[in-house]
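Course assignment 3, question 2. Fill in each field.
Student: A.L.
Task: Predict the tertiary structure for the chain below.
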Amino acid sequence: QVQLVESGGGLVQTGGSLRLSCAASGTDDCRITTMGWYRQAPGKQRELVARFNGDGSTNYADSVTGRFTIFRDKNKNTVSLQMNNLNSEDTAVYYCRMSGVAVGYFERWGQGTLVTVSP
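Answer field:
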């Protein structure tokens, strides 16, 4: 089965940078359609941060455009998020998500990695 493991979260000061990575396993017999990052801050709903669409195009939340960059390896086994100029509003648990087709449609979430931006 497809499994996702996030890494790279931690504590950073305002204005600093972090790079999150998501390693996927069990994807050899499936077609990945979307790969992206979401986040959930305390008391708020989970929201899209950045995503690769099925055609390879990308979407970014307005709040991170120009600061965050999503990228992936050629084999689509890893999707990463470079986060620059972080601020307190970026504090959240960040989740990796992939969707695609194996025997049927599937959707998989990672366990999340915490990003805390201090003043």
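Instructor remarks: The mean pLDDT is 95. Residues 32 and 100 are 4 Å apart (CA to CA).
Grade: pending
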